[in-house]
Amino acid sequence: xxxxxxxxxxxxxxxxxxxxxxxxxxxxxxxxxxxxxxxxxxxxxxxxxxxxxxxxxxxxxxxxxxxxxxxxxxxxxxxxxxxxxxxxxxxxxxxxxxxxxxxxxxxxxxxxxxxxxxxxxxxxxxxxxxxxxxxxxxxxxxxxxxxxxxxxxxxxxxxxxxxxxxxxxxxxxxxxxxxxxxxxxxxxxxxxxxxxxxxxxxxxxxxxxxxxxxxxxxxxxxxxxxxxxxxxxxxxxxxxxxxxxxxxxxxxxxxxxxxxxxxxxxxxxxxxxxxxxxxxxxxxxxxxxxxxxxxxxxxxxxxxxxxxxxxxxxxxxxxxxxxxxxxxxxxxxxxxxxxxxxxxxxxxxxxxxxxxxxxxxxxxxxxxxxxxxxxxxxxxxxxxxxxxxxxxxxxxxxxxxxxxxxxxxxxxxxxxxxxxxxxxxxxxxxxxxxxxxxxxxxxxxxxxxxxxxxxxxxxxxxxxxxxxxxxxxxxxxxxxxxxxxxxxxxxxxxxxxxxxxxxxxxxxxxxxxxxxxxxxxxxxxxxxxxxxxxxxxxxxxxxxxxxxxxxxxxxxxxxxxxxxxxxxxxxxxxxxxxxxxxxxxxxxxxxxxxxxxxxxxxxxxxxxxxxxxxxxxxxxxxxxxxxxxxxxxxxx
Length: 636
Hints:
Blueprint: H1 2-13, H2 16-38, H3 46-72, E1 81-87, E2 92-93, E3 98-108, E4 116-126, E5 140-145, H4 154-157, H5 161-167, E6 173-176, E7 181-184, H6 192-209, H7 214-225, H8 233-242, H9 252-265, H10 275-293, H11 298-316, H12 322-337, H13 345-359, H14 361-365, H15 373-399, E8 403-404, H16 407-431, H17 435-457, E9 462-463, H18 470-488, H19 492-514, E10 519-524, E11 527-532, E12 535-538, E13 545-548, E14 551-556, E15 570-577, H20 585-591, E16 592-599, H21 605-618, E17 621-624, E18 631-635
Parallel strand pairs: 4-6, 14-15, 15-16, 16-17
Antiparallel strand pairs: 1-3, 1-5, 2-3, 3-4, 5-7, 8-9, 10-11, 10-18, 11-12, 13-14
Helix pairs in contact: 1-3, 2-3, 6-7, 7-17, 8-17, 9-10, 9-16, 10-11, 11-12, 12-13, 13-15, 15-16, 15-18, 16-17, 18-19
């Protein structure tokens, strides 16, 4: 908790090398104070020692976060420069481009005489070129592009893409067009992670060689090695509506299922002396091998680290809280290694889900017991799903605003079929793809996909647009924690705390309900939108002229108004000029009485400057969205 507090404070308040020096000095002072207090013989100073240690660890989190952030950020040169880098993941196909993370090694501007060292990662989009061939994982590439941090439109979409990339370790984005990139022949020794990604691609090619294709190939690749490139939007929506989308992303669920399968296979070893320790060691080795074959993705590494610590804790300790301590230690180690993991949604959901299983599942599972094993299995599966969904509910409502109503029903099918699919895939990879095994694998995946589509089609399968603010999500999570404490040891004061927290949450909902909601008109992404709270609608019209209450706006993204004349000019409050516009401000001013011109950031810079000069000559006010990414107008 101290490390998390330090990271959050650093993200909100601190920046730059100056803050880093001040924090380092404060860390040194608290460290010396902790040593002095540790050797003090005064018992009454024990609380002061704990507070100083807490502050020291929090300062450590702040320093580690700032150091990592400085290794991501970079002052990219304005305009186009030449860069040399290495493709760090498997390229993904977009509608018109290819996309991959590139480790930029060196750069050179037009004024530089020597190459400058960079060593930063960017997200590169490039146009395919048949002459240069295809870029793949590990390829070195030289390209000319304008690298910059993505413009944030968080006010419009609620999502800061640039900040998201930064927290993923990516410092900028760039686009290389045809003729602006070249594949280099030299290829450096591949790091371990790139070798793992290449192994993963070979496994996916093996699945294709078995005859798997379409949605079956997509689900098998996602379940076994974490390759989600084949998943379609419709398939993802089916699993999301059923409340089982976690099964498509390698995480703790897969690690637990694999550990169960391996444990069953190694069960005879438990009868040997020291068999428990040998079985645990072999399971951990197998899971790390699986993590390598799946491309060493962060989510898998987190899950394997957590499970490895749990196995070690189970072997060396029989304490009641060994599992919780191992989960806390895993989170601590991961955050020390990379503090920005804290802002990864999958990181938060995975640890909260595990803690929910450890804390909530025992309370739910003991509510019912039957002598029939099958009934007990069904109840335990329901209890597991309920505990995980309840624990992660505040985060899900805060980030996604949706809730699957039939998640209990869907998970009754997902868990056994996932075991079957994983087991058959591993058997085929290890001992050969016998036709009847591959056919059974294909039928299992088809049954799983069909069931998720059926659940999605049920009436009211998903509750949408139920968003919690971060404060409301924290209140809800606090209420759940207080409720668990009350159920563990019931008392009137603990129940009062739960009720107070819930009442405060209700007050926040009432304040939102009676707060006047304002409507906005947004110019962004080469389109005109209306926004009310989180509801966004795009305006569409063949004439490109829109009337919204008292506002009249127009979209200029083609040549329809070029060299046109009108007897009487039409009044316009705003005209939005985007990429594709052909003409001049003089043409527009001859047709419309314009109050303000809005320039999209996709316009060519030289063309935009020309249009600006025309606006100044005509006495027209204008707005350039190059810095903001969107422009908002209040609709009265």
